[in-house]
Automatic annotation (TrEMBL):
Keywords: Methylation. Signal peptide: none annotated. It comes from Lentisphaera profundi. PANTHER family: GENERAL SECRETION PATHWAY PROTEIN G. This is Type II secretion system protein. NCBIfam families: IV_pilin_GFxxxE.
C-alpha cells in the first residue's frame, strides 16, 4: 500500500493557518484576561467596603484616617481579614511578606509596579502593594475646606496639623460620592501613610499610574458601597450638569461635602 505523506508546502500552509488563527485569537484572550483582572479589582473594592462598614460600627460611623504612625489601611487591620501585629503597623513604614503578611485585597491584579520603600533607607523591593487610595480632604484653619481636596480623609493645613475624618452619615449623596479609587506608584506601599490619600491633581496628571484603562476607565468605590468602572471625565460632572476642574471639584463625585 502507498503511504500518503505531507509535502513541505502542505506543512507550511498548515503552520501559516495556525499562525493566522493565533494572531486573531490573542487580542481576544488579552481582553478577556484584562476583564478578569478588572472583575477581581472590583471584588477587592467591595470587600474593602465591608471592612469600612465593620470599622464604622466600632468607630461612631467615621472613616479610617492616617493617625500618627498608623495609615488608614493600618487602622483597618482586623476588619479587612488581616492579622498584622501592632508592632508592625505602628511604624509608618511599609509592611513586608517576610512575617507571613500579604497585600490581600489592597493589591489590584493589574498593578504590577515594583514597590521599593521600606523606611528611611528607601530600599526593599518586596514592600507590599497598596493599589487603592482614599479621596483626600484638606482644610485651612481660616479658609475652611479646600475646593481641590474635598474628600473623605485628610488633614488640617495649619500649625499644628491635625488629622481629619468624615462621618459616613454626614455624606448626603453617598451613591454619588467616591470614597476609594485606584492608583499605582513605586512608593505607595501597604502600611505607609505617605500617598495613601491622594489629591485629584496627582490622579489626573499621571494617567499611566491608573490600572486598567487609565483615565478612559478605572474602578471607583462609592460611599454607599457600589463599585463602578467609569471614564474619569464622567466623575467630574457637577450635580447641576456643569463640569468641575482639577482646582475645584465642588459638587462632583469627588466632593464628600456637596
Amino acid at each position: 500500500m502507498d503511504k500518503k505523506k505531507f509535502t513541505l508546502i502542505e506543512l507550511l500552509v498548515v503552520v501559516a493557518i495556525i499562525g493566522i488563527l493565533a494572531s486573531l485569537l490573542l487580542p481576544s484572550l488579552s481582553k478577556a484576561r484584562e476583564k478578569a483582572k478588572m472583575a477581581t479589582c472590583k471584588s477587592n473594592l467591595k470587600q474593602l467596603q465591608i471592612a469600612y462598614q465593620l470599622y464604622f460600627d466600632d468607630n461612631d460611623g467615621y472613616f479610617p484616617i492616617n493617625s500618627g504612625s498608623m495609615s488608614w489601611s493600618d487602622n483597618l487591620n482586623g476588619y479587612d481579614g488581616r492579622n498584622v501585629a501592632y508592632a508592625d503597623l505602628n511604624t509608618n513604614a511599609a509592611i513586608f511578606p517576610t512575617d507571613g503578611y500579604s497585600a490581600g485585597l489592597y493589591a489590584c491584579p493589574s498593578d504590577d509596579v515594583q514597590r521599593y520603600f521600606s523606611g528611611a533607607d528607601g530600599t526593599g523591593p518586596q514592600a507590599l502593594t497598596l493599589s487603592y487610595a482614599l479621596t483626600r480632604q484638606v482644610r485651612g484653619s481660616v479658609a475652611g475646606l479646600y475646593n481641590n481636596n474635598r474628600g473623605i480623609s485628610g488633614f488640617l493645613n495649619a500649625t499644628p496639623s491635625e488629622a481629619l475624618k468624615t462621618k459616613v452619615s454626614d455624606i448626603l449623596l453617598p451613591s454619588q460620592t467616591i470614597s476609594t479609587f485606584e492608583y499605582m506608584s513605586w512608593d505607595r506601599c501597604l502600611g505607609r501613610s505617605h500617598l495613601s490619600q491622594l489629591e485629584l491633581s496627582s490622579f489626573f496628571n499621571n494617567p499611566t499610574n491608573i490600572p486598567h484603562e487609565g483615565l478612559d476607565k478605572s474602578n471607583y468605590l462609592f460611599v454607599d458601597g457600589h463599585v463602578e468602572s467609569l471614564n474619569f471625565f464622567s466623575t467630574m460632572v457637577r450635580t447641576d450638569g456643569g463640569s468641575g476642574s482639577i482646582s475645584d471639584h465642588q459638587n462632583t463625585m469627588w466632593d464628600a461635602y456637596k
